[in-house]
Structures are given as structure tokens and as C-alpha cells.
Specification:
This protein is α/β, with parallel strands linked by helices and 393 residues long. It contains ten helices and 19 strands. The strands form four sheets. The protein has a seven-stranded mixed beta sheet, with helices on both faces. It binds S-adenosyl-L-homocysteine.
């Protein structure tokens, strides 16, 4: 029984264990030769070394991850299948966040849709495809999203560098409908401007929503807050809403600071902020003031596996510096979005940071990516965001 017109790839003996346990990536060195000539992004059926079906997926001979498995049954990865998977992802968000119009609707492998991310900003959807396989399915995905959401616009934010590993071009464009400029959205009673065409990632870091709420729960009226790597002001705005007297936003991007300022004005906090354009790695070296709460949300410091030890030293040093900016008994809210850095190593780097800064660090809360970015237990790679709040003395 084969799917007609669908190429076959064969796993080497022993390579099926991880896949049978629920992982959906098959590496090129786990496959029997032959797949190298297949066209990038094509659907394939995967069999074990005895010829027994493992599932169906898409192939990319140019990538280290040669196959992304979509399904354990012999199905056609077409409109009916994708419609059902999208509906399942949307139903989960409806279950977790009823009525929410600003959230991640589809989170790749965790939603059984390898390579696909869809963020919803009200009536605008922002799509990221990270694989050749998903690129080929985008026309169908776009139609299905139109069918389900009747959006005003769908933006393809396909300019992440991971696409280079797949040998696919980087671009960002409106794929459906039209978009005049930034989109105004509301989350947790705060207004944000999101710019899907010029912003970072899809426009907003939705993964930090729960972390922002957690921080806000420890803000007291009158607190002064330092928001390092602020982007459009997510953490600081939640702190201001919780009663903070003042937030100092720091980022190296002028566009980010402009958004943080605009978002502050939109929420009526325009008088309670300062903006600092600086390289945070340098900025933190000269503490000029002490704060009741310091937020440290750097970009991913580990870009590749080889880079992990250097990244951990980076987290240690940045956190050690940041701790000095907290007043006695002040709070440090710190994050790492490096998927390659394991939470245990990252927590170790925080312990070392406290030693280095000669501070006592007590953890009072820990978190990670928001629930609309579920972590697939059988695929640790789907967990990337780590977050901790500590009291510094
Ligand atoms: N805290 C933000 C997200 C931060 S994303 C939120 O809640 O939305 C990381 C940010 O770090 C980006 O805005 C980027 O412009 C900024 N950045 C990257 N490298 C930097 C550097 N060396 N110094 C200062 N900012 C930097």
C-alpha cells in the first residue's frame, strides 16, 4: 500500500526509536541513500528498515533535518489534512484563551504542522514558514486561513535566518488582502501597535505574555523599573499598568524605542517613561541608578550548538551586571530564548551571576513560553523560552 506519486524514504536500522517515541525530525544521516535526489519540499512517505510505514512528511535533501514528519498514518498532506490540523490548533487556543484575538494560533511541530507559525493580531494574521516543505504548502494554508478567519490581511514574515539552512529565499510581504501600516491590538487591557511588515519576528513577542503577567504581579505602586532589551515595551507597559511610577526602556534599535514610546502614549503612560538607545552589554557596565525591578530579556545568545558555552558566559555576565542595578530587595526578571541552552544550564549561569555580583539571589517564580506556544513533551526542541524572577539582596 503506497500513496501514488509520493516518494519513499527509508530509515536506517535503529533510527526509528526516537521517531516512534513521538519526535518528528529525521536527520539526513539516519536515512538510507536515495533521498538526496528528491526535490526539496516534496511530500514523502517514511518506512523503517524493514519497509514498515512510519508516517508521511516533507523532505529536504539540503537540510540536516532531512524529513519533517506530519502524520503517523498514510495520508495525503493536502487541503483536507491541513484543514483538520489547523482546526485542532485553533480549538486548543479557544480552549486555553477563550475569545482571545491576539495569540499564536499555530506553533509548528507542537501543533502537528512542522515549519509553520501563525500569529493572530486581531484581523491580521502573520505567517512564518521555516522549511521548504511548508513553503510548498503555503498557498493551501493561506486559503484555509482565509476560509477560517476572513482576515483583513495575511503577512508572510519569511525572513528568519533558519530559512538559509533550508536553502529557501528570505522575504516579507503581504500575501493576502492589504495592510496600510501598523495594527492596533489589545492584550490584558493594554494597547499595542504591531508592525508585521517592519517589526521583529511577527511584530510582537507573544511568547512572553505569561512572563509579563508574572512580573506585573510583583510590581507595587510607585516602583521604578528598568526594562533592558525592551523592544516595543512589553514588560515595562505591564509594569506601568500595575502601578509602576516610571520605566526606563533600553534597546539598541531606534525603531523599537519609537514603538515603546508610542505604546506608552497609547496607554496614557507617556509621562512616566525614559528611553535610552544603547547597547545593553555596554550600558549595564555603569550602574547610575538603582531600580525596584530590572527586566533582562536579551535576544538569543546561542545561535549554534558550538556557541552554547560562550552564550552561557554571556548570560552569566549580563545577569551579574543587571543584578547590580536592582536596589536591596529589588526584583530581577530575566529570560533566555536560546532554544539550544537547557534550562538547568541557564539556571546555573544565574547562580554564577549572583556569585560574581556578590549578591544573594532568591527565586520567587519561574516560567516559560505562554500556553499558546505549547511544548511537545516528545520533542524538547519545542521548548525554548526560560524565565525566572528573583529577589536580589
Ligand atoms: N522584551 C521584549 C522583547 C525583546 S527582543 C518584549 O517583551 O517585547 C530583544 C530586543 O533586544 C530587540 O528589541 C532588539 O532590538 C534588542 N537588542 C538586540 N541586541 C541588543 C543590544 N546589544 N543592545 C540593546 N538591545 C539589543
Amino acid at each position: 500500500m503506497v500513496l501514488s506519486g509520493v516518494e519513499m524514504v527509508k530509515l536506517k536500522a535503529g533510527a526509528d526509536k526516537r521517531i516512534r517515541d513521538g519526535h518528528s525530525w529525521i536527520f539526513s544521516n539516519e536515512l538510507v541513500d536515495g533521498f538526496q535526489s528528491y526535490e526539496s519540499g516534496r511530500p514523502v512517505q517514511v518506512v523503517d528498515h524493514k519497509g514498515k510505514l512510519i508516517g508521511v512528511g516533507t523532505v529536504n535533501p539540503h537540510s540536516l533535518i532531512a524529513v519533517r514528519l506530519f502524520c503517523r498514518e498514510r495520508v495525503e498532506i493536502g487541503q483536507a489534512f491541513l484543514r483538520q490540523r489547523i482546526a485542532r490548533a485553533v480549538a486548543l487556543r479557544e480552549r486555553l484563551l477563550p475569545g482571545e484575538r491576539v495569540c499564536r494560533l499555530i506553533y509548528g511541530e507542537s501543533d502537528g504542522l512542522p515549519g509553520l507559525i501563525v500569529d493572530r493580531y486581531g484581523d491580521v494574521l502573520v505567517v512564518q514558514s521555516g522549511t521548504a516543505g511548508m513553503d510548498r504548502l503555503l498557498p493551501i494554508v493561506t486559503n484555509l486561513l482565509v476560509e477560517s478567519f476572513s482576515p483583513r490581511a495575511i503577512v508572510m514574515a519569511n525572513d528568519a535566518s533558519v530559512r538559509e539552512l533550508e536553502g529557501i529565499r528570505l522575504y516579507r510581504e503581504v500575501a493576502w488582502g492589504s495592510l496600510g501600516g501598523p495594527v492596533a491590538v489589545e492584550q490584558d487591557g493594554l494597547r499595542f501597535l504591531v508592525d508585521p511588515l517592519h517589526g521583529q519576528k511577527t511584530g510582537l513577542f507573544l511568547d512572553q505574555r505569561w512572563s509579563r503577567l508574572l512580573l506585573a504581579s510583583f510590581i507595587r505602586p510607585g516602583d521604578r523599573v528598568l526594562d533592558l532589551f525592551c523592544y516595543s515595551g512589553g514588560f515595562g507597559l505591564y509594569a506601568l499598568k500595575a502601578g509602576a511610577a516610571h520605566v526606563t526602556f533600553v534597546d539598541s534599535s531606534q525603531a523599537a524605542l519609537d514603538m515603546a514610546a508610542e505604546n506608552s502614549r497609547l496607554n496614557g503612560f507617556g509621562e512616566r517613561i525614559s528611553l535610552v538607545k544603547a547597547d545593553v552589554f555596554e550600558f549595564v557596565k555603569s550602574p547610575s541608578e538603582r531600580f525596584d525591578a530590572v527586566v533582562l530579556d536579551p535576544p538569543a545568545l546561542a545561535k549554534g550548538r558550538k556557541n552554547v558555552p560562550a552564550a552561557l558566559r554571556g548570560y552569566r555576565d549580563l545577569n551579574a551586571r543587571a543584578m547590580v542595578w536592582a536596589n536591596n530587595g529589588g526584583i530581577l526578571a530575566t529570560a533566555s530564548c536560546s532554544g539550544l541552552v537547557h534550562v538547568d544550564s541557564w539556571l546555573d549561569s544565574l547562580r554564577e551571576a549572583a556569585q560574581k555580583a556578590q549578591k544573594t539571589l532568591r527565586f520567587i517564580a519561574r516560567g516559560g513560553q505562554s500556553p499558546d506556544h505549547p511544548v511537545l513533551a516528545s520533542m524538547p526542541e519545542t521548548e525554548y523560552l526560560k524565565f525566572a524572577i528573583g529577589v536580589i539582596e
